[in-house]
Design brief:
heterodimer, A: mainly beta, 6-stranded mixed sheet, 5-stranded antiparallel sheet, 51% strand, B: mainly beta, 7-stranded mixed sheet, globular
Amino acid sequence: TQLLEQSPQFLSIQEGENLTVYCNSSSVFSSLQWYRQEPGEGPVLLVTVVTGGEVKKLKRLTFQFGDARKDSSLHITAAQPGDTGLYLCAGSKSGGSNYKLTFGKGTLLTVNP
Amino acid sequence: KAGVTQTPRYLIKTRGQQVTLSCSPISGHRSVSWYQQTPGQGLQFLFEYFSETQRNKGNFPGRFSGRQFSNSRSEMNVSTLELGDSALYLCASSKGQEARYTFGSGTRLTVV
């Protein structure tokens, strides 16, 4: 059972377009993280959101955590070829299930010049 | 500041063999986690160690095991390899008290 569902699975767009990636769950997470992974490398942390309704901005990337802390979105404005990669959301819970991340399967983004 | 170092980067093994992968965390990080990444299942949690103690374990068979040494370096072992064990194995380290992880580049294991 995949606790975190990401959509879309694949996304191919032209440079300059905007896009949104979604991460949904039926479970509540104490925090949610977004990573970007490039071929042959490990995931690199982009942001951590911990408060329901929280919005964080990282240059052209905007991350939002749902009010109920069950879902999140990543919005990229004016995408560039350098944004190409696999975007992963990952949730962590407090209590007995702590010390691990539950990952979505990822969104593979290709930005064409 | 050195990142998380995983060795080897690539490995080819035959079915039935065993393999040991190594992970050196960032200096000062006492928590090491292991994940298996495959195209079909994505990243799945294997286990996490803190100060040489396993604190959490994922749903993998007993053929998958790990340990952590006093210097926080960690190893994972897979015995009696199966074709389905072919994957990218990722190690992540953190200070242990917060969910802020730094991943290594992984070990690509191919079982033939």
